[in-house]
Amino acid sequence: MTGSDRAAVVAGLGSWVPPTVVTNDDLARHLDTSDEWISSRTGIRRRHVIDPGGSTGDLAVEAGRRALKSAGEERADIVVVATSTPDRPCPATAPEVADRLGLGGVGAFDIAAVCTGFVYALGTAAGFVQAGFARSVLVIGADTFSTILNPADRTTRAIFGDGAGAVYLRAGAATEPGALKGLHLGSDGGQSDLIQVAAGGSRQRSTGLPAAAEATYFTMEGRPVFAEAVRHMASSVTTTADAAGWAVEDIDKVVLHQANARILAAVAERIDVPLERFPANIERVGNTVAASIPLALADASADGELLPGQRVVLGGFGGGLTWGSVALVWPDITAA
């Protein structure tokens, strides 16, 4: 197989969410909010959160294990974990995840691109495979945003949930189902303050001053983020479809980062693709950040929405700002 014929092929899919469920009514018992207020603005009715002492790595291990099982594999050459809530600031979470999966000794590293992290990780992993540096890569998106939310902020607490999703990539032919194609990535660091945790990094710590309590929590400017998310995800999807040689109207499924039901509807309208082609699980899991896309894939596959042979575009938008998308013909796999 020549370099131009070689591609990273999706061969396994796994997902995991922690068992503890927090409904909108649960939030309303402690915050000035209601199920109607949350669901009408976001489309979210429930989310899963980790129990005390749990971590992003715990979720990543379970999703990774399931992706390996789905692929019928026990090994991977590289493990990539996309996360913005690592178990510790140092070291990366991926090496420990690899060790717990029995893959000790393989290359393992994290990628931080917030809600676009899974797409960035797919692109990075595909590069290793296509260049011949790896025969297989386990790509995991995992986040536990419940650990960085202000307990008194009704907006962010309503939006985010915890979870993990993973895919197993193997080397294969560029023409076979599951082969990744048409990757598109973008960023705008000039708007990095729109989505952030202000404290905890070198910029704040180098001052030698203690961080204000509110600076340690996640913040997001909702209105501009909404507009930027719609604009960039719509543009990225069309760019990727064109690179894959597809007309936008020929895309069977558009699996986007599950940030807000209104964003999905706005992107669908902007690219003139029926909303019915946009699988959504945000109602029951919320915004799970880097886990969002693989969780949506797993649910769509289990629900029979995602079928072998369909033309699929995956797309994300998140802090950085970052955005990106990738295309594939969905393979005949069963999520675990």
TrEMBL record:
Residues 109-189 form the Beta-ketoacyl-[acyl-carrier-protein] synthase III N-terminal domain. Its main location: cytoplasm. GO terms for molecular function: 3-oxoacyl-[acyl-carrier-protein] synthase activity; beta-ketoacyl-acyl-carrier-protein synthase III activity. It comes from the Bacteria. Coiled coil: none annotated. Pathway: Lipid metabolism; fatty acid biosynthesis. This is Beta-ketoacyl-[acyl-carrier-protein] synthase III. The gene is fabH_2.
